[in-house]
Design a protein that fits this description.
It comes from Papio anubis. This protein is mostly beta strands and 357 residues long. The chain is built from five helices and 23 strands.
Length: 357
């Protein structure tokens, strides 16, 4: 009798069935935002609406396509932290803002308005070492430290904000209603999950329509990124491709795969970036399902043979783009400017009270 063949055992046999969890192509707000990115940015800051008080500087942002007005608020916070909040100016009802994570109201520093070019506004902290350069059209924010741009916000034009709409039944009863921002055909609504989204046996009814948000950050000179736990991936975050974003969602995954970007347990929307001489952090305060895309453009140094004698002296710094997308809520992001790793950890713990007792 022949010896029985050895049974091959693979760790893949113990891995979780990924079909029971959503990936990017099954998430409607991801598909909607990726479709939007094929269009030119429609957001413009209205700098004639700027108001300043002790805590913050406020101004309107208008979507030129839908004519919906957003309200932006920029805060300077003690310890070299900047905060940007973007919400609907007049939402149908209050949008969700995360409670409890900030254990106390952050201590703010007054931002001083400096002279800027036509169509721009410059805000500086009291020390003058950190500045926010706000460009009106298209809307963009550059965070500058000692005359060097460290972070650019919306430089790729990926700001995305779905405003709340009237109840679906009331909306359907209206005749000849025009929608400037989305195609309301039945087929397109189902594909993009505008009012109802299905996954397996679960049905998500959206009484006030879709409400996702998104924003991009360009980190100048940074190639090494860490954080946004929890994933069984390499310590340094990898670039993402199509439908390959990091997913932040509170789960409890048994038998998870290693070297995979799917979420496995908790969701901590906190990212670190490091380069020689500087460390920064981005804290995206949002509790809803969130996807994070990362794309690094490596440094390029032109040579004499490539571009001629003038270009031979030019060097393009590396730059990493981080695109955050969340299913709902508001844009509420803290920029932790370091400059050292120790400073960034102190800034984060100062906001969340982690480790400070």
């Amino acid at each position: 009798m022949e010896a029985a063949e050895k049974e091959e055992i693979s760790v893949e046999d113990e891995a979780v069935d990924k079909n029971i969890f959503r990936d990017c192509n099954k998430i409607a707000f991801y598909r909607r935002q990726k479709q939007w990115l094929s269009k030119k940015s429609a957001y413009q800051a209205l700098l004639d609406s700027v108001t300043t008080d002790e805590d913050s500087t406020r101004f309107q942002i208008i979507n030129e396509a839908s004519k919906v007005t957003l309200l932006a608020e920029i805060y300077g916070i003690e310890g070299n932290i900047f905060r940007l909040k973007i919400n609907e100016e007049t939402p149908l009802k209050p949008r969700f803002e995360v409670p409890d994570v900030l254990t106390s109201k952050p201590s703010t520093v007054r931002l001083i308005s400096c002279s800027g070019d036509t169509g721009s506004l410059i805000l500086a902290d009291g020390k003058g070492g950190l500045k926010c350069h706000i460009t009106a059209n298209p809307f963009k924010v550059d965070l500058v430290s000692e005359e060097e741009v460290v972070i650019s916000i919306n430089s790729l034009g990926q700001l995305y904000f779905e405003h709340l709409q009237i109840l679906h039944k009331q909306r359907a009863a209206k005749e000849n209603e025009e929608e400037a921002s989305v195609d309301t055909s039945q087929e397109n609504q189902e594909d993009l999950g505008l009012w109802e989204e299905k996954f397996g046996k679960f049905v998500d009814i959206k009484a006030n329509g879709p409400s996702s948000i998104g924003l991009d950050f360009s980190l100048h000179g940074f190639e090494h990124l860490y954080g946004i736990p929890q994933h069984a991936e390499s310590h340094q975050l990898k670039n993402t491709g199509d439908e390959d974003a990091y997913r932040l969602y509170n789960l409890d995954v048994y038998g998870y795969q290693i070297y995979d970007k799917m979420g496995i347990y908790g969701s901590v929307p906190y990212l670190l970036a490091h380069k020689l001489g500087r460390t920064i952090g981005i804290f995206w305060l949002n509790a809803s399902e969130t996807l994070v895309e990362i794309n690094t453009e490596p440094a390029v140094e032109y040579t004499l043979s490539q571009m001629g004698p003038v270009a031979a002296k030019q060097k393009v710094k590396s730059r990493t783009h981080v695109h955050w997308m969340s299913e709902s809520g508001i844009i509420d992001v803290f920029l932790l400017t370091g400059p050292t790793p120790s400073d960034v950890f102190k800034q984060y713990s100062h906001l969340t009270d982690i480790g400070e007792k």
